[in-house]
Queue: 2 jobs
Job 1
Amino acid sequence: MMKDDVVLKVENLSVFFDDEFSRDNVTGVIKNTVESVNFDIKKAQTISIVGESGSGKTLTALSILRLKDNAKFNGKILFNNDGDFIDLLSLSEKELEKIRGSKIGMIFQEPMLSLNPLMTIEKQIKESILLHTDLKGEQVDLKVKELLDFVGVGYERKNDYPFNLSGGQRQRIMIAFSIVANPDLLIADEPTTALDTDTQNDILDLIKKAQQKFGMSVLFITHDLNLASRISDNIIVMENGKIIETGKDVLKNPKTDYSKKLVNALNVLDNVVCSFDGVDKSSEPLLDIKNLSVCRGDKVILNNFNLSVYKNESVGIVGKSGCGKTTLLKAILKVADIDSGDIFFDGVNLKNIKGDLLKSFRKNLQIVFQDPFSSLSPRMRVGDIISEGLIANGFDSKCTYNTVVGLLKDFGLSADDYFKYPVQFSGGQRQRIAIARAVALQPKLLLLDEPTSALDISVQSDIINLLSDIKNKFKMTFVFVSHDLRLIKSMCNRVIKLG
Amino acid sequence: MVFSLKNILFKNKNNLNSSDVVKSAHSSYFKSVWKNFKSFRRAYLSLWIFSIIFIVSLFSEFIANDRPLFMYVRGYGFFAPVFKDYSETDFGGELPTAADYNDPWVRNYISDNGFAVWPLIKFDYKAINYDVENPSGASLVNILGTDDHGRDVFARLLYAIRFSILFAFSLVIVSSFIGILLGVATGYFAGKFDLWFQRFVEVWNGLPQMFVLIIAMAMFAPSFWSLLFVLTLFSWTSLLGVARAEALKVRNQDYVLASRVLGLSNIRILFKHILPNSLTAVISYLPFALVGAIGSLTALDFLGIGMPAGSASIGDILKQGKENLEHPLLALSGFVVISGILVLLIFIGEGVRYAIDTSSKKNK
């Protein structure tokens, strides 16, 4: 018989989808998206599932509560329901509803999507309490107060709507939801990924606090090996739907090649060599921002901001989300309006740039965006995407074609990729294309808006290597926006904190 | 010279090599859309039925006509009256005027001196059957009877279907061209231009359409073009909102910002980025726009302010049905045809929307 201290036991779980995409092209056999996964979670334990996108980690977690409608399962998921084990996969939808929320809680990556934007948080929590517990009348109000105070949002904010709250506070509310009925298990699916570093730690502390108070087990899904090894009793590494390694010390002592690759990718930051030769602070700065202020309505986003970036420098800009990093970049690019202050680029005030001068200014200032999926037009070929800027700046078609093919080859893509569409590429390849587009014009200054944060760890290291190559080869000046302090530390010679 | 030639050759070769890749990327998208559409049985079936009806109606002259498809008269050779007007003297008759093939004398003359191959229905939309009372019920000669002028209802419906569909296509093409272009432009430029243009559109939509249509149709001689113009006046706004909403969504995408930063002009961004990326959603509205266009044309004809009197139209048949309630076949056949076509188009529209929109897979 199973020991009583096991909360959840996953036995030989396979998940597959019965649709055209999951069939093998040749044989027509349905491929398992998650294959023969085994693990168990003991009482008050924290287990992490680590893996890159597409590894099946989230699907595994969603399968426990059968939250993926069209998925089909093999195997067993045994849940310790007050002493007797029940197979969650064999329960009817109605029986499962009694487990969801009351016995097993769940929090997601994007809290805004999980909250009703038209209801106050008090109402939403009340609803959850009435649904999952037997509390009535005043007890409910007391419970709301207790929960809000516990998660650190404060009872005085009970009448706020989700949009009044910051990302971190919304995630706190989600945690309040999930612990309403003192569940035995909390499934946390990348709960901190959308948050900045400071808030991330607060949320982790809160989850830990809740765990200690209610004695629940936590199943933590993340792509961040560092974070996983900090908080968990056991780490499960997944790749392509299979568990490839289980252990406590994956970070220190990886056994399989894949884990080694993941750990190495983390360490690559320490080995990046960026040269800052020829940074001459006595000369005129390449970019000089003086007393910049930007407001949106009544909200002051940037207030008297000053920054000088010299040639060949790499300046890192860090700050919480919403502190005006993106607004600053847009102001530098002259695509957002500024309220007061001056931005000088190469000695010219951007205010005075118009017409043809603007075109040549654009050529010298380019940007790489965070999300490679929204930064490439899905209806254009890769070659057209990269050559667009060259053509707009008067290069002839022959020269453009050769430049683009050269760039593709330099960036680890092939000449044939010229005619493909962005959908045919992975995230990392797309980011290479986006960087190629920005570098094609050989700008003097390259702005990088979190260029790696939307990518998997192993891909991140490729992009970082590529960027440092570009920096060293073209002697380009970088302005680097990121919340990844390790990245900033290795790529930048100077850091500015915003907000 | 040699160098550039080499370059051109190199480029061409490369183009050839890669065209397969392009094709596969393109075709895989259209393939999957087509596959999705096919899996929506009702829409796929409707598309077949609609296509058959439309193609058959395109050949109305060969199915319902008051002149032979083909005839032979001894001593004069072969004639194809479907394609060309002949006078009786051309094939040995007496009158120098255009031949009336329903005239018993002409019929007898042809059958005595040769033969004629007739279409299935021996009337076109304006040929009158003088042998029956008007309107008359179904008979072997007029399978759906005749209307109050003695014209064959089946033939009139056949010609009307063709006209309605062609008219609807023209109207949708013209009005969606204007609507999509303006919608995408207002969505992209946003700001003041968008604000004022939207107010203008609201006022425009607030005009009492029917009255304006009646006044406008009284000003112009009724014809295909005047109807198209007048109906375009009010239908161009229908797609404007969708196109604008899509463009508003797309304009905030990073790739649009990237293009601005690369120094592209607004016009270029509009046509290379905004338009292609907004079009998908707009396309799924087109079958419904067709439904609307056929509906408006029928309504105008029913009210008697549409196409000139005597032309074949579904609205006209319905009007006659209203005026001749003792002959229910008139109203019934008009009703079956108009509702049939509209239902088919709506099913097709559902299928298109299903095929394009990946998120609606579940609630089929």
Job 2
Amino acid sequence: MQQSTTAEKFQKRTAEYFIEKAKQAKGKEKFLVALQKSRYISDALQNGLSFSDLKEQGFKFATV
Amino acid sequence: MQPYKYILLKPDYYTFTTIGGTEYHCYFYTSEEIFSDYPSLSKKVFGFNIGLKDNVSLQKGLDKRIAATVVTILKNFIDEKKNAVIYICDNSDGREKARYHKFSHWFRQYNDGSIIQLKGVVRAGGTNILNALLIHKENKYLNDFIEAYEILTGAYTKPDDDELQNILNDPEW
């Protein structure tokens, strides 16, 4: 039986991972880190992680 | 145009369902990465994403109420005048230009003039990153955000102290 490979490819990250990456990035490269973070959160939700799971990984969300 | 009624699931996300039954999620997340060299600004920046619940495929056709709803959610968030929002177009499927134009168009159509949109294209890591910074015109950090954003996107180079002194001492400038 063939399993979906999407979930297998998905690698969990913490918010700290992106913060550290941004510290090392210079100038415009910071946008690349922001793009990767945006995509990560989107992918995580599509791969079955919940907002609670993401918060456990250090991501913070806001509403008003 | 009447926006859809949306549900606020504090403190995480907003959700609404279109007349066609498609459920959207909109959320703001802390995004201090871009302005990490500006500590007074970095904590005030939020990324914004729109997603489809269960990753369903979209129905064809134009539903203008989606735009009205998304802009309403954004506007309510930015109207607090505390934070700025950065929207970065996903380019993983090669449709970033379509997203960029659609988002800009939505905003132009439904913004009442209270929110300033700075648009930029940044070349980094061998790819073009299309983005927009949204900020309320009465946000007290407006000028700081504009300067930082323009420096980061390469639209403006801040002169160092010597260069600035030369400019100020130049009678022809």
